[in-house]
Amino acid sequence: MQAIPAAFATIFGGTAAAGTAAAATATATTLSSITTGLQVVGTVAGMASAMSQASYNSKVAENNAIIADQNAQEAILDSQKEAQQRGLAAQAEMGDLLANQAASGLNLGSGSYALARKSQAELAARDTEIVTTDGRRRAENYQQQATDFRSEAAQQKAAGRWSIIEGGLGIASSAVSGATRVNKIKAKRYA
Length: 191
Description:
Elements (H helix, E strand, L loop, with lengths): L2 H9 L9 H83 L7 H80 L1
Helix pairs in contact: 1-2, 2-3
């Protein structure tokens, strides 16, 4: 307990409570040890915070990857539904075209009537292909996003692991620095 009043006396230019250089050295050593301890505590707190943040960021990225995967599946399903709807619409148009052609009373198997139906069928097939290709492209984009998010999650996990190493090195550095200060104080005392 005498070290605390001695520390204040030494800091503010007075003499140590016991009035000796040994008391001042003990006070300086105690303050140096306290400083080192506080540095270690600060490093541990920073390390814990960095690990927590990295873990949170990793979970967010993993969840984003899951959402991107779901979006990719939905893009495929949506394009399939759209292609099916357009196919049905094309069949209805083909039926209307055929009915109109039949109503004319002319031969349906020859000339411009046959070419019109062939063109209608080709346009319908091309339209379906465009819709499904667009759906695949959107799905591939979402799959790429999912891959990117998984990569980000892995990077965040690695950052969390590195924060442990960094914290450990910081603690070791603080301990060495504190020991060096204490040794310098003691060396002055015995010099």
